[in-house]
Amino acid sequence: IHWQSQKRSTFVNEFSEDNLSCEEIRARGFYPEVPLSKDENEFPIAYARTVYKDYHFQEMMFNVMYAPQNRYCFIIDNKATEKFHKKMKILGKCFKNVIVSDVEFDVDGAGHNMVRSFLYCMRLLLKEPSWKYVTTLQVDIKLKKYLAFFLTFFLIIQNKKEFSFKNFVFVHLHRYQFAANCFA
C-alpha cells in the first residue's frame, strides 16, 4: 500500500487569479506540440463546447482534452460573469487551435438555445475545416482513455456521416430555433 501511495498522482493547486498569462497556463498543464500518435494526426476532431462558469475547471478539462491537431470552439453563455469572459478570452489567445466566440447565447439547463450555440460554433470551426468530425460538449468530462475510444470509434465509422455541412447556409437558422421552441 505504501508503494502504491508513492506512485499516486496528486494535484497541487497553483492556480491563482494572477496566473493568467499564456506562459502560466501552459506551465500548469501538458500541452503537446505534436500529435501523440499517427491516428490522432490523421484524424483531427473538433469540439464545440458551451461554458458559463468555473474557469479553473474549464482550463483543467481543456488540458485533459487537448491535442494540437484538434480544434476547439467555446461559446460563452451570456449569463457568465465579465471575469469569466476575460479568462476564457485569454485561454483562447494562448492556443492557435482555439476559438472563443464573441457571440453569446442565452442557454439554460433545459437546453434552450444549446443547438443554436453549437451550430454557431460549427460555423466558426468551418473556417478551418482540417477536422474530420465535430462533437458537442456541455459539462461532459472527457478522459484520455475515453478520447482514445472516441478516436477509434470515429475511425471505424469513417466516411459514414450523419450529416454534412457542404455549403451550409445559416439563412435558415431561424428554422432550428423555431423547431427547438416547438418542443419546449
Side-by-side strand order of the widest sheet: 3-2-1-4
Low-confidence stretches: 178-184
Main β-sheet description: 4 strands, parallel
From the alpha carbons, calculate the radius of gyration and give it in angstroms.
18 Å
From the spread of the alpha carbons, the general shape counts as: globular
Average pLDDT, rounded to a whole number, is 79
- The assembly state of the depicted protein chains is single chain
Helical content band: 40-55%
How many strand elements?
4
Pfam families: Branch
Organism: Enterobius vermicularis (Human pinworm)
GO molecular function, one term: glycosyltransferase activity
InterPro entries: Glyco_trans_14
Please tell me about this protein's structure.
- Mean pLDDT is 79; it is low at 178-184.
- This protein is 42% helix and 11% strand.
- It has helices at 2-7, 22-28, 38-42, 55-65, 82-94, 114-125, 144-156, 173-182, and strands at 45-51, 71-76, 98-100, 133-137.
- A four-stranded parallel sheet has the order 3-2-1-4, with helices on both faces.
- The protein has one domain.
- Helix 2 (22-28) crosses helix 5 (82-94).
- By secondary structure, the protein is of the alpha/beta class.
- It is a single-pass type II membrane protein.
- Keywords: Glycoprotein, Glycosyltransferase, Membrane, Transferase.
- GO terms for molecular function: glycosyltransferase activity.
Q: What would a concise description of this structure say?
A:
The protein is an alpha/beta fold and 184 residues long. The protein contains eight helices and four strands.
